[in-house]
């Protein structure tokens, strides 16, 4: 009988919690996997990437360190991208919105500080969840993401202060707020739902303004919310 070679389709790829003792290469062929729809790299050290064929330089990552892997946009079947608590820095891949089936992007716990590209305002309809907490974002994300409708957004523990006068539209009751939050201005947007209960546990909250939105329900009681002026909830 002739030898048979079994071919397997890779749908999910997890490279999590790998304690690598020396650098290992992430093959550029990852970008050509025809059926890959889930990619997760979390708490992994000593990964080296030759990135995609569209980039001609070599990138080295210690604990997945350096610029974010730009070959991601070549994986057209991706639905979920999760790179948590590594040392990524610089820009998010500019061409991620070209992945038409993308639903979730999570880059929490990295060192992303650059302005978010305007292209991030053009994700396709399936895109509903983005988490960029514990980074160094200061600006740019407001204009680029304001036109999208999300099921869940987490931008906590960045350097963002004023999110007012945009077109954010999401269920505010589902938002997880940073325990170190001191100032939050989300006035003049299109927020709906209730105020998150987590606001009552913020020990350093000194200013809150969610006026001119579409919020409803009772105001949570407790903590420093008791000192917030009622005008901060007006026109809801």
TrEMBL record:
It is found in: Cell envelope. Gene3D superfamilies: Ribonuclease Inhibitor. Pfam families: LRR_1 (PF00560). InterPro entries: Leu-rich_rpt, LRR_dom_sf, PGIP. Coiled coil: none annotated. PANTHER family: POLYGALACTURONASE INHIBITOR, POLYGALACTURONASE INHIBITOR 1. This is Uncharacterized protein. It comes from Glycine max. The lineage of its organism: Eukaryota, Viridiplantae, Streptophyta, Embryophyta, Tracheophyta.
